[in-house]
Amino acid sequence: MAPDSSTRPRIEYVIFDMDGLLIDTESVYTQVTNEILAPHGVQMTWEIKAGLMGKVEEESVNHLFSFFPDISLTKEEYRARRTAGQQRLWPTVQSLPGVQKLIAHLSKHKIPIVVATSSRRFAFLRKSAHLHKEIFGYFGCGVEGAQEMVVCSDDVSGKTTGKPEPYIFLYAAREKLGRDVGDGEENVSSEHALERGRGLVFEDAIPGVDAGKRAGMSGATFLERVENLEMRC
Fold first, then answer.
1. Can you count the helices (H) and strands (E) in the chain?
2. Residue 11, Ramachandran bin (φ over 0: left; ψ between -120 and 50: alpha; else beta)
C-alpha cells in the first residue's frame, strides 16, 4: 500500500513511461492497427485501445483479438504487418510538449531518472534513435560510457503480464537506480515501503497510473500539462 500523502518522503528518483508520455507514438499505434483491420470491416476504437495500454505484446494482441473473434486475420499475420508498419513510422515520432524541459530540470537538480516502457527493445531503439540529443541522452542513450537508464518489456519477460502490475516500476527502481524497494506487493517491509515512497512515476494511461500506485511510489500522475508543473526539487 502507498504511504499516506501527509507522511510521504521527499522525491529522490523519477520513473517515466514512454509511449504517449515522452513521445507521440499513440497515433502511430492507432493508424497502423486500423489500416490492418480495415479490410475486415472492423476498427480499434478508443475503448478497445485503452485496454491494450501498458500490456506486454502477447497480452495486448490477445486483448485486441478478443473483440474480433470472427475475422480471418491470424494473430501471426497481424503481428508481422503491424511490426512492419510501425517500424516504418517510428523514426518520425516527436517528443511531446514540455517533456525536454522537465527532464532537463530533473537532470540539472541531479534527480535520478529511468524509463520503464512496455515497448520491446528493438522498437524502443527505433523510436528513440533520432531523439537522443533532445530526450534520451538524459537517460544515457547514445552517451559514451554511460549506463542506459531504460527498462523494456524484454527485461521483465516472463515475470509480469504488464501494467497495472507494478513489477516493471519496482524492477526499474531496483536494478537501474539501485533503490532498495524489494520485490512484489505482499509483505512489504517498512524500509521498502519508505524507499518506494521516495519515487515518483509519470504515466499517461490508467493501467500505468494504477501500476505506480500499486508499486507504492510517491505519486503516479498524468503528464498532460507538464509545462505548467511546479517541480519541487
1. 9, 5
2. beta
Look up residue 114 and give its three cell numbers: 529511468
Active site residue 180: no
* Three-state secondary structure readout of 132-195: CCCCHHHHCCCCCCCCCCEECHHHHCCCCCECCCCHHHHHHHHHHCCCCCCCCCCCCCHHHHHH
The model's pLDDT over 117-145, given as tens digits with 9 standing for 90+, comes to: 999 999 999 999 999 999 999 999 999 99
**Identified catalytic residue from 4, 17, 70, 183:** 17
| Cβ 163 vs Cβ 210: under 8 Å | yes
Flag whether pLDDT at 77 surpasses 80: yes
Q: Any catalytic annotation for residue 17? A: yes
Q: pLDDT digits over 5-15, tens only?
A: 556 678 999 99
- The catalytic position among 19, 24, 180, 183 is 19
Q: Is the peptide bond before 164 cis (omega within 30 degrees of 0)?
A: yes
Instruction: Give CA separation, 1 vs 30, 164, 222, 229, in Å.
Output: 34, 14, 20, 26
Report the alpha-carbon distance of residue 160 to residue 25 in Å, rounded: 23
Q: How many of the other CB atoms lie within 10 Å of CB of 38?
A: 10
Question: What is the model's pLDDT at position 99?
Answer: 92
Residue type, 146: A
Inter-CA distances, 203 with 36, 158, 174, 183, Å: 28, 23, 19, 21
